[in-house]
User: Fold these one by one.
Assistant:
Number 1:
Amino acid sequence: MLKTRITEMLGIEYPIICGGMQYVSNAELVAAVSNAGGMGMLAVGNFGSKEELRDEIRKIKTLTDKPFGVNVTFMPVLEFVDREGMMDTAIEEGASAFETSGRISEEHVQRIKKGNAKHIHKVARVRDARTAERLGADAVVIVGYECGGIPPMDEITTFIQVPLVVGAVNIPVIAGGGIGDARGFVAALALGAEGVLMGTRFMATRESLIHSNAKEAMVNAKETDTICVMRSLGIMERTLKTEVSQKVVEMEKKGATLEELIPLIIGKKVQEAFETGDLHTGILPCGQITGLINEVPTVKEVIDDMVSGAEDILNRLTRMIRAG
Ligand SMILES: Cc1cc2nc3c(=O)[nH]c(=O)nc-3n(C[C@H](O)[C@H](O)[C@H](O)COP(=O)(O)O)c2cc1C
């Protein structure tokens, strides 16, 4: 047990959240994180209809009786999804928290509150954290440039983002981006965060549904083996450095248009690459923490190691301070 405003708010044992990951989060991963004492978030972007989402949530409920959440992305990339309908379905099915990202409105926040769920909004800029607080979010996640998925365009790292946001808002802050073990966990708490949100670390676990080739590629990847694509489109995505992602960056440098880039970056290809393990098919979102990932443990092993490792680190720091 590790008590912060986040554990209290979400009714969980440890302030460790698995961020929603399109093409990666499924019932097994979400339930495994919740069962291990954290909170898993199911990404609605995985589902073409409310019925599909409902089925997957029902599956989560057969796998855990612990609280779980749902991720809803308000990025332009998911405009075709009936996000409001998906939110209502998740509430009906008992999701107790929402992790949102992108441009939310007051109406979205109210929808979550009416459903008696907690609202965590994920941002990549200090000013967006202030806006989230003003709109009524219960907590905010701030991600740094290291993160998998969509990093801040201005390239500010987690170490700088977290204390800035902690100083800017009164609601609890969760740190995301580049966290994958006890060291990152303790560092985030030391920076003033009251919890951590991780994506990449949980991708390379036994329960994650991606193909073993993708997990192996992550284990073999160095910290320099990720690359940001789509910068020219004004919304970046950090991905594994593969032939496809490097080609995208090359094309962008030569002034490629969105229409020219779409065949390479389209979600269907990402999904195909994760499912088939053919890493030449599409881009593979992944954070820099992949450089610190050397094995594919279970979710429970990841979380247990973070919690017991945090205690060891704190004992070491206490001894250092007392010796000084
Ligand atoms: C494969 C992948 C898919 C993701 N999909 C989503 C998504 O659908 N919605 C969202 O808000 N964030 C998404 N993210 C971001 C994660 O939820 C989380 O913010 C990020 O992974 C944290 O950084 P880390 O990877 O360094 O731990 C995704 C990240 C990855 C790696």
Number 2:
Amino acid sequence: MSLSPSHGDRLAAAKLWLISTAAQPGPDPPRDLPYLARALYALVPVPTSEVPRITCDEHWRVYINTDWIETAPIPAIGAELAHLTWHLLHDHAARARDLRVDATTAAHWRTASDAAIEHTLRADTLSPDGLPTADDVGLPAGLSAEEYYAVLSGLPAAIGDNRHGRLTEPGCGSGCDGLTRSHELPPGLDRPGADLAHIGRDDARQIRRLVAIAYREHITTRGTKPGDAWRWTQDILEPTIAWQPLLGSAVRRAVAWTNGNTQYTYTRRSRRQSAVPNVLLPGTRRPVPNVALVIDTSGSVDDHLLGRALGEVDGALRGLGVTGSSVTVLACDTAVQSVTRVRNARDTTLAGGGGTDMAAGITAAAALRPRADVIVVFTDGHTPWPHQAPPGQAVIAAILGRPEHTLPPSPDWAKRIECRL
Ligand SMILES: [Zn+2]
């Protein structure tokens, strides 16, 4: 069960067309995408008559209709290979399982993941036949498959739409949606002597890593970064540590630092006093610290993300017994719009919506009476900052943004936590 030599040649030609540089100008020159090489040469071709063109399973096998590969133009074969390879690089099968994609929603997932891939491929001047665009979905280009799917799966099933296909149809294969088709081989068909291999999870992980390194260089050289594929390289190469625990621990450390600054006092007796009855030991005074939350309400801050960041800080403060009147919220755009004392930071109503100047917010927070010990600033970071730290106050800068963005700098004197959607 392997491709005939002539079909193998056409497949090899399509891979070369994708990765090599054009020797001379022509109507459909090679695409110069060497970053795909690792993945393309890992694919295991399986001839079949069960699919109209070509599909993949999640073990990196590509099922190829032999009539199709015999007659399809090499660039069309190349474009399909790149399309399926991106399903495998993105691990769309596992992601579909995470979303509990099933036979009733598989068509939506296929459209969603294809629309995400289409945007990546278009930047490399590849356009496989019939791939839906973000426009078709009615959403901006560059989003993830999950984002498209969220919208699509809320819509009625597109029965009768021949582009979507139903599960009984091959679609892009289980390499797209994790749902095994009848023509697909079982995993792990690696018996000795068998000429059929598959790519296991560890090998797949290694291939993704190598392609991500090469791809990052490719798009850096090219100068444009398709959102979804750029996020993918970041996820593969620099998996981000969840920001929530970092923000919580920054708050706890700031409060601890405040307590460390507390003077020893003789007004409260040490709990060790009974051990040394004739000497009066100093006790530490541990007042509840005052916390000011400065919130950028300039409209460029994502409300959902802001809510999560506030929730994290609330949780940390509650755990430390810092609640109610010791928390002040300052809503700020170019100037402080409102100052409220709240039980729960998330309960606050935020005013504002113009430009951004967090320096005004921090200055106002620093001037509060009673004095704030800890100031937490929530902003997208596109703001001026004070030149110096407010003296004796710990400042945390929670910079809110999207995963693919490089977030703006913040001053060294503020503890920076990047919070991403
Ligand atoms: Zn697809």
Number 3:
Amino acid sequence: MPDCIIVGGGAIGMLTARQLFLEGVDVLLLEKGPLGGESSWAGGGIISPLYPWRYDDSVNRLAERSKDIYPELTKTLFEESGSDCEFINSGLFTVVEGDSKEIIDWAKSWSIKAEFINDIATIRDIEKSVGDIVDRGIWMPDIMQIRNPKLIKALKASFDHLSIPYQEQTEVEEVIVENNKVAGVRTKQHRYAADKVIIASGAWSAQFSVTQSSVDVLPVKGQMIMYKGEPDLVKRIVLSEGHYVIPRKDGRILAGSTLEKIGFDKSVSSSALEELHGAAVELIPLLDDLEVERQWAGLRPGTEKGIPYICQHDDVEGLYVHAGHFRNGIVLGAASVELMTDIVLDRRPWCDAAPYTLSAQH
Ligand SMILES: Cc1cc2nc3c(=O)[nH]c(=O)nc-3n(C[C@H](O)[C@H](O)[C@H](O)COP(=O)(O)OP(=O)(O)OC[C@H]3O[C@@H](n4cnc5c(N)ncnc54)[C@H](O)[C@@H]3O)c2cc1C
């Protein structure tokens, strides 16, 4: 019998299972599809929230901690798996209107390098391909990115390398609770006993009866398109009005993303393609000449303020919730996992855990 079952094998579940395993916990991860096949595969992998100054400190605290963890984590994953997560520095240029002083002060308070630029020649020294609408904004030169499918591949290979137990195509139907204490989980075929269960089921985290009333996570669809370009054609991540362009190492260029609250629907639409392409071409006009190679959608685990749940359930001993990272599961993930691990192992948490409890968000 494992000590701890993790329900959901996205980036959050995989990173959590791996960390607990490394700390000596006997884990079992159960995933209804293939590992990392949902939002964690579909995302942009920007290692910063978009417009981070608009977020609560509790989100930025995790983001800043993760930025310190990823260099070593991606290096270790490479050593374990031979798989490169493409953790690279692209910097992020964000078009902003109005007063930038507050943003610069905010960045200083978090020791984040940020500079306001409103001279198009200087902006083009940073990214030569930008269009005319990119004429003023905030340049953050230290922002990194990870290529999501490569992170998933590296994590999966790390599981195999370290022999971390997991089962794919295994859907958990019920979390078993006896006398207000977790006793395990049930799938169609089996009952798995465990004293601890972590719900890391992304957008699906409210599905279990024990979590329905308290875990406010809703699917928020995000569509993305990908262009086929040459390496270094575009070098920087550029963002304006919620639309962004992310250049990958091999010349692929992603443009995202939509925000759609329409339930568990992952279909892609021609209207989204038009919206994303139109916005991308305004940011980087040369994209108009490139082929759109692929379009896809993912379901973000949405919460109202974007603050994730990282906590023990209020009413059920041994039940933990690690979900609701919304638009920032990759950037928050590494630090969020450290906090979840502290809580599960009953250690003093590395940061104040109060903002991430179920009650804090109701
Ligand atoms: C278009 C888009 C762009 C994004 N860009 C960024 C970005 O640039 N930076 C960033 O940090 N974040 C970004 N995100 C958000 C990020 O991808 C998510 O926050 C993150 O992937 C959430 O990880 P997760 O493991 O919680 O969820 P998921 O990856 O969705 O994993 C949850 C897993 O649980 C499994 N599951 C569900 N129910 C069950 C069950 N009953 N039994 C077993 N398994 C179950 C699912 O199959 C799934 O694999 C983006 C997301 C999208 C869609």
